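task queued by scheduler; priority normal; single chain, no ligands, no partner chains; default sampling; output format set to structure tokens
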Amino acid sequence: MLLLLAACGGGETVSAVRGVPPGMPAEGALLRLPSEGGSARLYRADSLTPLDWQVASGVPKIARALGTELEDRMVYAVDTDGRLVGIDLLARRTRIHLAATQQLTATPDGAVLGLDSARRAVRFSSRALTTYRASVEGGGTPQLLRGPGGQVAAYLPATNVLQLLGEDGEVRRFTAPAGQATVSWHGDLLAVTTDSGVVLFDPSGRSDEPQFLRLRGAPITTTFSPSAHRLYVARGRGDVLVLDRFTGDERATIELSGPAKELRVDRSGRWLLAQPESGDSIWVVDLVRREVAMTIRSPWAEDLPLVAGGRTLVIRDGDDVVAWELTGTTPTERTRLVGAAGDVYLAIPWSPEAPAAMEPPPVVAEVEPVTPEPDPAEPAVAGVDSLPVTTPVPSGDIYLQISSSQNREWAQALAQQLRDGGFAARLLNPTDPADPYRVVIGPFPTRDEADAVGRRLGRPYFVLSEAPTGT
């Protein structure tokens, strides 16, 4: 394995990660699905050591991994016959669904989207199938994307049309330029990248007029941060532009060694992977330091490379799959799965060793503020307020309150980002219209353990205990 200074087929071996601070925790696992059929296996995300879990036999030949529906403990994939394959993580069984559905794709929460033979949108979620009344209009192959409130967006760049389909048959249509389309993780904003800028569509219905962000430097592709309040735009001039999603303001510029044609943000929001326009390397961008942490030779595929648990880079290296530690002072190869590169991989926020860690904690109340040094990758967001100091921490279970906001969508996005990173986070709804939405993490057995996690978050938090009534 070579760590390279430029995106090319060869070069000088270097250690380019310099004092990267610890990132998100390494909870979760890496699922290995058989490309030739047979058994499915789980590995620890940080070390690729085997876990005591497998589907021993009966898994069909897998072509693509789609995603995880955590509430039902289900993983979905597509086999080589184009069928939807469901894998029950608890029962360790496989079942075939949607044998005749096309254009199968998954949303970040694990719901599966597709088209039936009449080009009607379908949505498979919680083991139930919803068929939309309206069909996708026009010719060509649409790109299916998540919309808000169960809607499905169908983007047809060949005809410059974006359609938003509702379950009851309603259809909203937008004129959309041809380009690269991406959607926020919660489906509340869709971006189309053109060579002169980024067009933003609000599918929630608040505005039918798209917003155009005119950008210099030949934009190529765009992706959202997990919480969707940042946009990362790769440009032909050889950099990544960081934009504020709400204002369109430029927050930072991250220099690359050349243009990138594809971007991929990890679930913790800490790392950005970029695929160069040419060559067989990957740029690993540290979004805290806003710089390329290292360049590493590996092919780019739909499943790999990925960052698991916020700290482990998983790549293919020839016939092997390799895990690299990202949070040390230098990059370190941790584990190598020999001969495993031919299979399909998916990082899942679940582990058989600690399934309870994925359950939401009970409701809690804040008691004492603690403010660590802020994370430069996550500037303060308007509407997030500090809460007053009350009483000392009593005995019992302990939690962290991460935010207090009047913006429900932002709070939901933050809670989901933390859960995707491996934290047991949940959103507390207000009991009064004047109260804020609160995001909490826990429980912890001691104050020291809670503080240790709080310091690693790199953002303000409160130590919490006791459940408020009526929440």
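post-processing summary
- The chain has two domains: 29-348, 359-465.
- Helices lie at 408-420, 447-457.
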